[in-house]
Amino acid sequence: MKNIIRVSFWKAFSIASLFPALFCLPSCQNGTATRDSWSVYKGDATSSSYSSLNQITKENVATLEVAWVFEPNDAPDGARAVKYECNPIIIDGVMYLTSARHVVYALDAASGKIIWSFDPFDGKGGAIKRGVSYWQSGTERRIMFTAGNHLFALDATTGEQISDFGDNGKVNLNIENFSGEEAWVVPTSPGIIYNNLIILGSEVSESYGAAPGYIRAYDVRTGKLEWTFHTIPWPGEVGYDTWPPDAWKKVGGANNWGGMSLDEKRGIVYVPLGSPTYDYYGADRKGMNLFGNSLVALEAGTGKLVWHFQTTHHDLWDYDLPAPPNLITVTKDGRQIDAVAQTTKTGFLFVLNRETGEPIFPVEERPVPASNIPGEQAWPTQPFPTMPAPYAGQYLTEQDLADFSSDSQQQVLDAFRSFRYEGIYTPPDTSGTLLTPGSRGGSEWGGAAWDQQTGLLYLNANESPEIAKVSRGVAWKSPRDQSMYNVGRSFYNTYCASCHGANKQATDPSIPSLVDVGKRLSKDEILNRVKNGKGKMPAFGQVATGNEEEILSYLLEINRDKISQKSQNESDTGMVYLNLTAYGYFRDKEGRPAIKPPWGTLNAINLNTGEYAWRVPLGNIPELQQPGDPPTGIENYGGPVVTAGGLVFIAATGDQKIRAFDKETGDEVWTADLPGNGYASPAVYEANGKQHLAIAVTGNRDKPGGWMIVFSLP
To answer: What is the pTM of this model?
Structure first.
């Protein structure tokens, strides 16, 4: 590898200057990219994460320095840091972004100076938000974004709410579920613009009682719902026969939370979908379960199904499709084919014909292990692409286990031998199952970057096996009680678990446990704390309003009875088993990964041939790196961008750095320190004649709001 150039963030920032620039109005049409813009989430409607700018090159990247830093300063006093994943858009010198608190800002892209801001929650927002969408018709320009369960429209010039859009500037996105009650949806990734429509996915609960993940299109001018695609099919619709007859009334999920891509010329939107609920147990949803875990191609103007391809049948592993596909063109057998490349958590890359959904490289249905859970029927086969080879490990042996010490090695070996494990697609089991890849394996929401010049797709990946154990769960006095509890649990996991712990048992002594909170506080006192905050706890009034019963149901476990193994009827499997240990890392007793490195990689795949051009570790944990070994790699979130200057830029890792790699060789040629982790995809744009590189950085206890940090050449 070449020598790596390191830049200290704080030193660079201390010498950087902030210069005001002239106020500019955006001028691109419906997100169509121009050379100096980054006008759509992930660069353009095709999700290329590619920039044609070439001012920053392999020869001068070492001189990059911090041009400006924007710190929103909109986190309430005592607020905790939340993961900041925004990929900003830049149009004619104006950067539009969301903060970690869901505040929308317009900044001068050359200096970081605020032009306007809009706070949908009056200082009470928080949780993941990855950016905004831009629409223009003539001189009318709008910023479209979601916050909580609402879609907003703002004047792009002034930041003022469009009063005649929806209900006084916003549209409620909640969906009536099978019981007639509202089930919340909270989109985390920006919608995509097609003509005068904004097409939206959503994040929903991952438990029983979740909302279905319908794909919906709204009129950008009026907020009117124009079409809906049912991801859990209704009677008479394609895919209905892959579910039990009443599934459309009660099963949730199969949602698009990572974003989508658009072929503007063909008028087709490509929508990657997640798993149906419950994530790890599907006895109540027997069948293949279309359109869960499917890449779905829809007519963008009508929502009509064009084609679909399911990447995991009857998902029991939380193998959501986590990111928008890249729209690509490959050369195969002497002819050019427009295609889509879909990344996955499994480490498979599915390359499909853009018009038909037919695989470019052969895909085989292969037998996989059966489930041992009473009532569960795992699908007997799963699709395996024959090329490219998987970019994440899918089978472990004892030789793959970490050996930090003899004690650690023996402990990991004993654990490994105790699990049920038959390779990828081993179903969760009551004895404990090792999932390889786990739900954090392979690709995450950042997706891949595509370079048409080289025919290479660049993607980062995790090696993160997990432990899952399915246990007897709970009985409910009514389906409504269960639904309310699960909505409350999803609220808790989104807004509360990072401080109070996954099981309500806080590990920080300064944060109270919420176990048996009903013995200390009344219902009114609990809701007052949630809505108005106290001490270090921020207020969640805006997002809690309308969910009061559900929050109390979860915190107080109302109408929830634990099932005794002796009393449970084995034949009654409908709502008995729940996965209580999902997302359990496979680690040794010191908390170190239980498998040998690399634990994170950056990959370049030639999609004309299906072969790898290169593969390198991404990130490093020096204290775990053995003498003479390559970097360890680190679990990573966020994606890469690739440029015409010959570089791949990526942060993503948990070591507080951003890096540049030679796109032809994979050599790491530059790295810079960040004040936090850059769990976001960078944006590349031009302002005042200079190429810039922007990355959102997650905050910390002292600076909970995070930063938008922008680099440029001197």
So the answer is: 0.85
